[in-house]
Amino acid sequence: MAAQAPTMAVPTDAQLIQAQAGLWRHSLCHLTAIALRCAVQLGALASPEEGIYSLVPLSYLLVDGVFIDGEASQKAIVLATTSRHYIEVTLGLADWFKKDIAPPPSPFEDVHGATLFEESMALLDPESDKVFHEALAAHDHLGIGTILRECHDLFKGVQSLTDCFGGDGTTARAIFKAFPHIKCNVLDLPRVIEKVPSDGIVNYVASDLFHTIPPAQAVMLKV
Ligand SMILES: C[S@@+](CC[C@H](N)C(=O)[O-])C[C@H]1O[C@@H](n2cnc3c(N)ncnc32)[C@H](O)[C@@H]1O
Transmembrane segments in this chain: where (predicted)? Predict the structure, then answer.
């Protein structure tokens, strides 16, 4: 007996209209990100005039001079994630999936021949490399204050902690400030650690996470 072709239920008219609207939404949703990028580039977000209008929390993060535990602007994140480099990576994803290389390069490396946060990126495009680092610093700075306020109990009883992928130690220093009894190690790659001035607050360890992790009661991975 011949195998039967799988049958597909034909959507109703109402489903078709919904489906078409959904398709347009998915196809165009990148414009939301690009509109946000335009607003940041044009400096279109400003402190509100009192009593006339107010900022929603998202806009609050994009206004110059807003302080939450220090300078809190997240503009660099918008500029980094909507940058030409990021968008070109997404356009190359279909080709990347078809590649048969082991181990596979990251999609970013595959398209640009450079790795984010490494020397190769700085050589490829110093301006963009600077924006990517600013975005990382903005992310690092904002998150930890909230974690310390909202998840205070997480650190209860902890005497020592190693922050893997700890970068320049922003997170570990904030933890130490809130819990001065916690002995903090910051682990990152040598090229990152060698640029961080020693501060006498946390112990900076230059190493590869996959080779050594300084012993501590707790290990933190925050990305
Ligand atoms: C996304 S960033 C760090 C994010 C930071 N913890 C935060 O919360 O914002 C990733 C960091 O991991 C570091 N890194 C990448 N591979 C590593 C490895 N194999 N060993 C140690 N650090 C590594 C990078 O140098 C970079 O500083």
Answer: none
31: Cβ contacts below 8 Å, ≥ 6 apart:
none
Which three-class secondary structure state does DSSP give residue 221?
strand
Query: Which atom from ligand 1 is nearest to the alpha carbon of 166?
Result: 6
Residue entry with tokens 């300078």: 71
| Cβ of residue 171 lying under 6 Å from some atom of ligand 1 | yes
Residue type present at position 113: G
* Local confidence band at 146 (pLDDT 50, 70, 90 cut-offs): confident
Count of Cβ atoms closer than 10 Å to residue 80 Cβ: 21
C-beta 195 within 6 A of ligand 1: no
| Axis-axis angle for helices 126-150, 170-178 (nearest 10) | 20
Q: Report the alpha-carbon distance of residue 176 to residue 149 in Å, rounded.
A: 14
Fold type of domain 153-221: Rossmann fold (3.40.50)
Q: Is 147 in the pocket of ligand 1 (CB under 6 A)?
A: no
The Cα-based distances of 168 to 10, 171, 212 in angstroms read 56, 8, 18
Please say if the pLDDT value at position 118 is more than 80.
yes
Domain ranges of the chain: 29-46+55-133, 153-221
Return the minimum-mean-pLDDT range out of 76-80, 92-96, 149-153.
Answer: 149-153
**Does residue 165 line the site of ligand 1, with CB under 6 A?**
yes
Instruction: Report whether residue 219 contacts ligand 1, using a CB cutoff of 6 Å.
Output: no
